[in-house]
Amino acid sequence: MMNCNRTGSIKRVVGAAVLIGLAMMTFAVQANAAATITHSTANLSAGRNNGAATTVDGKAFFAGGVSPGVYHDTVDIYDSGTNTWSTDTLSVGRVSLAATSVGDYALFAGGYNASSTLDTVDIYNSSTNTWSSTTLSSPRQRIMATSVGNLAIFAGGWGSGHPSTGVTTVDIFNSSTNTWSTANLSVARGLGMVTTVGDLAMFAGGRGPGNYSDAVDIYNATTNTWSTANLSTARGSGAATTVGNFALFGGGYPPGSDSDVVDIYDSNTNTWSTSTLPSGPRRDLGAATIDGLALFGHGYVYSTKVDVWDPSKPVGSRWSTLDFGAALPPSVTHVPATVTVVGDQAFFAGSNQSDGAGGYDPQVDIYATPEPATMSLLAIGGLAMLKRRRRKA
Fold first, then answer.
1. How many whole angstroms separate alpha carbon 190 and alpha carbon 169?
2. Alpha-carbon distance values, 107 to 138, 141, 240, 264, 281 (Å)
3. Rounded distance, CA 204 to CA 195, Å?
4. Which stretches does DSSP call E strand in 12-94?
5. For the chain, what is the mean pLDDT?
6. Fewer CB in a 10 Å sphere around the end CB: N or C, the chain?
7. Nearest to 64 by CA among 85, 81, 48, 41
8. pLDDT in tens, 172-193
9. Eight-state DSSP code of residue 314
């Protein structure tokens, strides 16, 4: 008969091994976070494309857009705190507008309706739950918008529906002083890629009077200065996002064909490098960052794949591709993609494909990563289970 003390020791060793295994599984899942990205769906109140999206105070806003014969003033609002949807309205229905958030404010600027290009700016104040409106310094559409520090920046755009009317105008809203100022891009253009990394707001590529551009205008909020750089290839209709100290500018349309090029700026070293989207060329795509992962998805060519870039992995093995198959039929590939992030969820909305009833598909695709605590709970559960077994023994 085995000694009881020896039996207890063996149980403790086995228990410890189980816990170590669970912990290793937790870390492994977190290390391979791309594989754990989940997909779910919701619906806008009306299907439409070429709207604008932004997030403020835990609420995601999807504003404006167009469907056959309709310039929408609808704003669909997702509240992550209550996991509910509601609607509101812009002051005027329009398409090809731009959105960004700063402080308590979500701003929706410019655009086009059935008769003209607009200078309208609708402003939502999350602290008072009220709307107001003002105007840009000039009417335009296809604006590049982002925020840095206490500034919301609306750069470039087209004065009408044609790139020959591209402008250099930059309107800047200061949320601390509630005032506006202006600046100028180095090259007139709209339809570019835009993101913020650290204290740098970056406006890359686009299309203007001189066709497609490789220009990158960079605003430094700390020094209040502008500088320029260049993409590896001229293109518009791409997508940009920031993960850590990296700003990524992916895909798009250079003259003649879609692009798979990704230009990567490292703000720590002030250097550029290039890569390619592993699933192939696409334009009018969307980009977002969740849980330290950069996602590029949707757009032409109606792909069911989402490319994921993970900066924590060694150079050369940072890309992976997730294929969501039947969950992303061509009708919901979001062209152009309207994207925003709430917490650990990335929302891709907007479709130019039929819903079968004379409108556009309203589906919103939501990508998320599990909270780190989710896997850690397995280890805690394992520990409790072992304790119960010991008591029974």
1. 10
2. 16, 14, 19, 28, 31
3. 9
4. 38-43, 52-56, 59-63, 66-67, 70-71, 74-79, 84-89
5. 87
6. N
7. 48
8. 999 999 999 999 999 999 999 9
9. P
Quick check: 30 and 376 in contact, CB under 8 A? no
Structure tokens given for 25:
């599984």
Give all strands (DSSP E) within 177-318, no chain letters: 179-184, 193-197, 200-204, 207-208, 211-212, 215-220, 225-230, 239-243, 246-250, 261-266, 271-276, 286-290, 293-297, 305-309
Identity of the residue numbered 333? T
- Least confident range from 127-136, 217-226, 254-263: namely 254-263
By three-state DSSP, how is residue 313 classified?
coil
Q: How many CB atoms lie within 10 A of CB 199?
A: 13
**DSSP classification of residue 66:** E
Q: What is the pTM of this model?
A: 0.87
The greatest distance separating any two alpha carbons of the chain, rounded to the nearest whole angstrom, comes to 93
pLDDT band at 352 (very low <50, low <70, confident <90, very high): confident
256 pLDDT tier (thresholds 50, 70, 90): confident
Task: Give, as one character, the DSSP assignment of residue 265.
Answer: E
Q: Which of 151, 140, 201 is nearest to 181 (CA)?
A: 151
Least Cα distance to 344 among 287, 293, 292, 290 occurs for 290
User: Tokens standing for 221?
Assistant: 């909020």
CA distance 168 to 203: 11
Measured CA to CA, the distance from residue 110 to residue 292 in angstroms comes to 32
